[in-house]
UniProtKB/TrEMBL annotation:
It comes from Varroa destructor. Non-catalytic component of a structure-specific DNA repair endonuclease responsible for the 5'-incision during DNA repair. Responsible, in conjunction with SLX4, for the first step in the repair of interstrand cross-links (ICL). Participates in the processing of anaphase bridge-generating DNA structures, which consist in incompletely processed DNA lesions arising during S or G2 phase, and can result in cytokinesis failure. Also required for homology-directed repair (HDR) of DNA double-strand breaks, in conjunction with SLX4. One of its GO terms (molecular function) is damaged DNA binding. Its main location: nucleus. Residues 23-137 form the ERCC1-like central domain. The keyword Nucleotide-binding does not apply. GO terms for biological process: double-strand break repair; mitotic recombination; nucleotide-excision repair; regulation of telomere maintenance; UV-damage excision repair. GO terms for cellular component: ERCC4-ERCC1 complex; nucleotide-excision repair factor 1 complex. This is DNA excision repair protein ERCC-1.
Length: 222
C-alpha cells in the first residue's frame, strides 16, 4: 500500500479544506502566537481542520517553528514536516530565531527541510514571520515573472535591493522603510529611534541600518 493510500481520508481533506479562502487560514493551535498581532495587510481566520499551521494558498502552506522550542522538542518539527510531505505543492518552514548562536541549529533544520522538500525561511522577530505570511498570501495569484527577482533600472527597486542587502533586513522591511521615509537619503539620515518605530524593524534592525550607513565605503590607506 502506498503512503497516500495509507493516510486516513480525514487528513487528506484537512490538507486542502478551505484553501479557496481569500484569508490566511490559521490552525487554532497558533491562536496565542505573537505573530498574529503583526498580520495587518490581509485577514486571517482560525480553523481546527488544517494539517499545516498556516494555509496561504490553494497549494501553499507554512509551518512555524521557534528555535527556542526546537531546542526542547527536537522531534516536533521532524514529525510535522513528515506529515506534510504528500500534501501541498509549496511547503514553507518559517523559523523564528530567538536563541543565541543560531547557526548550528539552523544548519540542522535546513537539512531536515531539504529532506522534506520544504523551503526554509528565517525571521528574527514575530514581525518578520508575519510579513512573510502576508506577502505569500498577497502574491498568491501573481504570475511567476512578476514575483521573481529582476535586475531593474528604476530607482525604487534599486533602493529596495540596496536596503535588503543589509544583514537581517528583508525585502518587506525595505519596502516598509521606503514607504515611511520616502527616500534612501532620508533613511540614511534617520536616527535609531526613528528607524525602530517602523513596523517590522525594531531596535536591533534599526541599529544595524544606522551603523551600515555610517561605515566607510573604502578602507583607509595604511
Amino acid at each position: 500500500m502506498s503512503r497516500e493510500q495509507a493516510q486516513p481520508a480525514s487528513i487528506s481533506s484537512t490538507a486542502t479544506a478551505g484553501t479557496q479562502s481569500s484569508n490566511i487560514l490559521v490552525h487554532v493551535r497558533q491562536r496565542n502566537n505573537p505573530v498574529l498581532t503583526f498580520i495587518k495587510k490581509v485577514a486571517y481566520e482560525f480553523r481546527n481542520d488544517l494539517l499545516a499551521d498556516f494555509v496561504v494558498g490553494q497549494s501553499s502552506c507554512c509551518l512555524f517553528l521557534s528555535l527556542r522550542y526546537h531546542q526542547t522538542q527536537p522531534q516536533y518539527i521532524v514529525k510535522r514536516l513528515d506529515e506534510l510531505q504528500n500534501y501541498f505543492t509549496i511547503r514553507i518552514l518559517l523559523v523564528q530565531v530567538d536563541i543565541k548562536d543560531p547557526p548550528p541549529v539552523l544548519r540542522e533544520i535546513n537539512r531536515m527541510a531539504l529532506q522534506a522538500r520544504s523551503t526554509l525561511m528565517i525571521g528574527w522577530s514575530p514581525q518578520d514571520i508575519a510579513q512573510y505570511l502576508e506577502y505569500y498570501k498577497l502574491l498568491e495569484h501573481k504570475p511567476a515573472d512578476l514575483i521573481k527577482e529582476k535586475i531593474a533600472a528604476d530607482p525604487y527597486t534599486r533602493a529596495v535591493t540596496a536596503l535588503s542587502s543589509i544583514k537581517s533586513i528583508n525585502k518587506p522591511d525595505a519596502i516598509e522603510l521606503l514607504e515611511n521615509f520616502g527616500s534612501l537619503k532620508k533613511i540614511a539620515e534617520a536616527t535609531v529611534e526613528e528607524l525602530a518605530v517602523i513596523p517590522g524593524i525594531g531596535e536591533r534592525k534599526a541599529k544595524m541600518i544606522f551603523d551600515t550607513f555610517r561605515e566607510p565605503f573604502m578602507f583607509a590607506a595604511k
